[in-house]
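Researcher: Next sequence.
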Amino acid sequence: MMVTSSTTTDIGWFGIFRLGLVQAAIGAVVVITTSTLNRVLVVELALPAMLPGLLVALHYFVQVLRPRLGYGSDMGGRRTPWIIGGMVALGFGAVGAALATAMMPAQLWLGIACAVVAFLTIGIGVGACGTNMLVLLSTSVPRERLAAAATVTWVMMIIGFIITTVIAGKMLEPFSLERLIEVTTSVAAAAFLMTCLAVFGIERRNTISASPPSATSASNGGFMAALREVWAEPHSRRLASFVFVSMLAYSAQDLILEPFAGAVFGMTPSQSTQLSGIMSGGTLIGMLLVALICTVGAKARLGALRLWTIGGCVASALMLITLAVAGFVGPDWPIKPTVFLLGLANGGYAVAAIGSMMGLVGRGREAREGTRMGLWGAAQALAFGIGGIAATAAVDLARALTGSLPAAYGAVFVAEAALFIVATAFAVRLSREDTQPTMKIDVQGTTAAYVVEAGRG
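Model: Next structure:
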């Protein structure tokens, strides 16, 4: 039997939006490096599209360090320094990537080497800042607001994408590599200042701890021992598996939807881009609907995050199978409503999954919240890094084997649906474990929640 203690300090809606600004800042810097620099490398510098693809994948793969970055904040007892430090690393990495891009016309290989270092730094910065922001948010928000908090952070990240692309796009005219460096530096500096303002004074030392982090670290052998402890927790291990499998399916569709629309439905680039916009709109609406239902009906069965996680996975699988069938029917199929419903299902699943992840971060050994969130974040990053590459390679392989575009894309969509079904099985198992009894006691005016895990862990 394992007994753990944790407390929640409600930061309120204003605090949730403040932490959402951190996610917006992350999104603002990341979109410059993964979108704008991508286009410059391929179009203006006429380099192979594989180069930015590998660099972006690299920034995902290095995020396997997320558990270690979360563990560092566990031991220090504070998340704010790691959030700010992560944003510093992210900003320096973005500026370094712009400088490396400007270097490539004169010294290609040196520029590529510098870009590799820059994207590694970007990945570390995203991992440190994002992991610890989510931990701080998870431990500061009541359970009934977790879905809303997850939606706020996701929407704020999208807002960061949109605002940056609009403003940076205008600032880059007329384009030059020098202006690219200036704009990237400006975005990184603005993101750093916004992060500092967002987290200023939001973290308070008013929690009860069963043992100080330093004592925990000393008695359990450091990071690897902490990681083994977290992995030994059944819910942590199953949630990491769920996140990896579901996010693999979620991310795999990103790089093949528009080519599918063009190759099978004869859509122009403008039409396929609009189709992606329809899916994004569906995703956003799905997030908002689930967040509203889970917040308003928090005490009712309909407001259970686990219900929407399972339902979102099943609905996503069904819509992917529908999309596979649509490829064989061709242009007569109502593709836009199908894609919208896929986005709706994805959005509902995503916000419920993130909310569930935030709700489970405090379950288990004391002073392991950052390590736990880091493990799940690493699983997500690996899934995103592998998903796009695996999906495009699978389409090419299936096309070579079948000689049919509808069959090739359909096979990949069905494989993604199968992954969502596997993820559903993990989610069902997790929901059965989410029945731990809680007992609240009052110690000198401070409420401490003790969670008893009988026969688990």
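Model: The domain at 1-201 is CATH 1.20.1250.20 (Growth Hormone; Chain: A;). Residues 196 and 366 are 27 Å apart (CA to CA).
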